[in-house]
Amino acid sequence: MRSFALAAALVAASFLPGERLGVAVLVVAALMLLAAGAGLRVSPVRLAFGLLALALAAQAAVLDASWVVCLDLVAAWVLASLAAAGPALTAITAPLRALVLVPAIAPKPSSRWVPVARGSALGALLLVPFGLLFLSADAAFAGFAGDVPLPSTTSLAGRTATLGLVLAGSLGLGLATRLGRKSREPRTFRRLSFAEWAIPLALLDTLFLAFVGVQLAVLFGGRDRVLHTAGLTYAEYARSGFWQLLAVAALTFAVVGVLWALADVRTRRDSLLLRLLLGTLLSLTLVVLVSALHRLRLYEDAYGLTRLRLLVESIMLWLGALLLLVGAAGAVASVRARSATAAVVLTAAGLLAFSLGNPDRRIAERNIDRWATTGLLDDHYLARLSADAVPALVELPLPERLWTTLILRDKLQVDDPWSSANLSRVRARRLLYESR
What's the N-to-C CA distance of the chain in angstroms? Predict the structure, then answer.
């Protein structure tokens, strides 16, 4: 383990600081994984996580877009940690779980109305954040609530630091394999009675149903209906609420997870009702995501595609896939047993597919297609894209092609050393030379 960790740190310190990211990143990642896997019993799940981590790290030798490569490297580190530590990695989420889980306490005698009061209080607590997010996300929906006040939404030092970080990371992955073998004492938590979970879920489903009803009537009703109902331009209405609706979807995962874990289900009727209420919530959340995606597509049609808009669009699709997985886990026991592993694999595979789809090239192609239709071209934005976009940019007429590739021509004049070898930059240099 130590030899591989030291080799990874030395390669990183020698070839990464001050250079463009390239094939050296893949070499370092492979050595770090070897350091983590030394003496580790390999299982199919760990092998899958390790291979996905290596595939994501390899994007540094394929793509030039640093924002995509950074996402891939962060995900590769998480996957490598999971491959090394396994369930021990859940210790990172302990503070979050402490906020949402109820510690075990001795039950006290109370009247039968106390659980109803608790359920109503929990329902009210759930309605506040979801309600505020819906109100701030949609002007038409906020119109039904009246005037509600809302909150406003390569030096020696560099090489030494790289050596230390990579060495610490490599050794940390190796030590994590030992932490993963330690068992943890199980904890018990007080269950929520029927009224304490049924009332909040029913109230939340009602709120979601009201919001979805407004979305179906207003946003999907067309431009005139939006202008008449919300008092906004179509583009303004389409632009509003992206982040709030994404937060709604994220909070839904927390609510479903907590209630599924803590709901006291004693009869088949209770089980059926819980599945029905949770299934309704997940289905309505999918409609909320479709609404947010529809808004984003309308805005992209009006103003073009950017990196942030493409990233948000991909996050929406990822959340939708996770919602479907959660729904399947609730309905099928065999899926539920492997849902955590499936979620990690789904996320890693989705990010890998996103990277292999070449985001900067897609952005350039979409904006060029929009220019062919509307005559509007944001050439200043296209000029700031990475070498990944060159295959699309060279299809532009000569004046636009020269302007949008000016910065890239200057950046790519000097060849990369072997450690920064990158397929996208090699292809871009060839295409720019041929298009002169």
Answer: 51
Q: What radius of gyration do the chain's Cα atoms show? A: 26
Give the rounded percent of residues in the chain with a pLDDT score beyond 90.
18
**List of residues 6+ apart from 192 with CB closer than 8 A:** 102, 119, 122, 259, 262, 263, 264
pTM listed for this prediction = 0.75
Determine the Cα–Cα distance for residues 310 and 312; give it in Å rounded to an integer.
6
List the beta bridge partners of residue 192. 263
Each residue's pLDDT tens digit, 61-100: 999 998 899 889 888 888 887 777 665 444 333 333 333 4
The pair of three-digit structure tokens given for residue 269, joined into one six-digit string: 């009727």
For residue range 117-138, what is the model confidence (pLDDT) as tens digits?
Answer: 667 766 766 776 777 777 766 6
Q: Which residues pair with 103 in a beta bridge?
A: 189
* Exposure of 283 in the CB half-sphere (CA atoms within 13 A): 9
Distance, CA of 352 to chain centre:
12
Asked if the model's pLDDT at residue 55 lies above 80, the reply is: yes
Kindly give, in sequence order, each residue whose CB lies less than 8 Å from that of residue 81, ignoring residues fewer than 6 positions away. Answer: 89, 173, 176
Label each residue of the chain as H, E or C: CHHHHHHHHHHHHHHCCCCCCCHHHHHHHHHHHHHHHCCCCCCHHHHHHHHHHHHHHHHHHCCCCHHHHHHHHHHHHHHHHHHHHHHHHHHHHHHHHHHHCCECCCCCCCCCHHHHHHHHHHHHHHHHHHHHHHHHHCHHHHHCCCCCCCCCCCCHHHHHHHHHHHHHHHHHHHHHHHHCCCCCCCCCECCECHHHHHHHHHHHHHHHHHHHHHHHHCHHHCHHHHHHHHCCCHHHHHHCCHHHHHHHHHHHHHHHHHHHHHECCCCHHHHHHHHHHHHHHHHHHHHHHHHHHHHHHHHHHHHCCCHHHHHHHHHHHHHHHHHHHHHHHHHCHHHHHCHHHHHHHHHHHHHHHHHHCCHHHHHHHHHHHHHHHHCCCCHHHHCCCCHHHHHHHCCCCHHHHHHHCHHHHHHCCCCCCHHHCCHHHHHHHHHHHHCC
Beta bridge partners of 189: 103
Structure tokens of 428?
A: 């871009």
The closest of 413, 373, 371, 412 to 392, measured between CA atoms, is: 371
